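Hi there,

I know you've been waiting on this one. I reran it after we fixed the sequence typo, so this is the corrected version. Both the input and the resulting structure follow.
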Amino acid sequence: MLQLFAQKGLSLEESVAINGAHTLGITHCFSIESRLYDESKNDEPNEHEFELYLKLSCPKGSLTSNVSFVLNEPTTLTFDNHYFINAINGRGVLRIDAEIPFHPLTAPYVQRFAADQDAFFKAFSSAFVKLSTYGVLTGSQGMIRRHCNALS
């Protein structure tokens, strides 16, 4: 995933920061089932109690995994640096959330953002601007839709 951001002109620091958007919202259970229940892939460092919470929230074989969800983190309605704090403490919901604090290239940024919310905000802002202006179509190349979910 980080390579995708690099292709769009983001630095490694900005790529880590943009993952901090996971501080908001929810994750659908179908997005984490493979990491919770595939024993051959379940090697991410998770806090044991947090993993149990995820498994209780997203039971194996649930018929509602496409509508069931877990909060990304306890302050899910507040844009803050708690995503990084939780990730360091083994409470990353998605696979990348669990891995990013332990990779040698990304760990220093995760640690800095966990300790310094302003540093996270600054790097996130820079990344957000780059992503929002990347590949924008203008003039006759683009299209303004009356309804965003339909070509008209």
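Quick highlight: The mean pLDDT is 87.

Best,
R. S.
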